[in-house]
Write a structure and sequence with these properties.
Strand order of the largest sheet: 2-1-6-7-3
Helix content: 10-25%
Low-confidence stretches: none
Number of strands: 7
Distance between the termini: 67 Å
Radius of gyration: 25 Å
Order of helices and strands: HEEEEEEE
Number of helices: 1
Mean pLDDT: 80
Number of domains: 1
Shape: elongated
Amino acid sequence: MNEFDGHPGTAKLAGVLSDRMKRENESPLTLDFGEIQPNLSLKTNSFPVEIPKGDYSVCRLVGGLSYTINGGGHSGHENQTPKVNTGAHSHTAAPPQIKAGDRVLVAWIQSEAVVIDVVKKS
């Protein structure tokens, strides 16, 4: 038998921790604006403390990751058939990375900031 079984303080602590975890997991997704600082840290409107690079996440399109676009083709080639000389090709796209001074859209997922995209005025 555990020495803490039936202890009222243990039961109360367990209840408080359980309620706190439920509230944390039920918190809604929050969108925010932020700015990338000269040292590439992130400062958001709702949390104006610099979050160091590496402590926030970025989506692929602003994270400097490249991706491949497949498909498409060229028409008008001589002797073109569905199997010969279709000109199908692919390209690797590498969108620009976020940089100092960029205004960004940030999603807060629980306690983690995720940079979604760069935002510019119209």
